[in-house]
Amino acid sequence: MSTSYKFDNPDGIYFVTFTIVQWVNVFTRAAYFDIILESLKYCQREKGLQLHAWCIMTNHVHLIISRNGKNKLSGIIRDFKKFTSSKIIQEIQDSAESRRNWMLWIFRSAGQKNPNNKNYQFWQQNNHPEELVSNKFIDQKLEYIHNNILKTGVVENPEDYLYSSARDYAGMKGLLPIVFID
Length: 182
Prior knowledge:
By secondary structure, the protein is α+β, with helices and mostly antiparallel strands.
């Protein structure tokens, strides 16, 4: 079995991406962003997740992470994805989401194709973790995470986007505590 794209080094810093099935643009409402933010804060506080950089796009999330403690990154990420998927699905069901039926149909269809799920699948299976082993690779991923939002035309400067650590790296206060990469 290949060791590519695994959390092999317990002391490593990793770039990961979580993508919503079918690239559905879920993150368009504050309630969905809040679920991700609160879950990341919980993982930081209770599970030893160290967050170095992050950005929530409309249909995926980028993180640069490591751990501080005994919990494995793979377990933290598994629990994060499981919790956020069920909470966001519940929010879609309970809110006045105009795309509710369409979104739930997509998530239900994806879940039926995956024997690991009971009803719905929200996140794609793979996290594609890449260990950041050089300063050049770290700089490349930091730039990618923070500048990715510029492609959408939503903001003119990365630090203007609320749901990103670009604010922290620009000397502003962001929404989540981060550990800067030296």
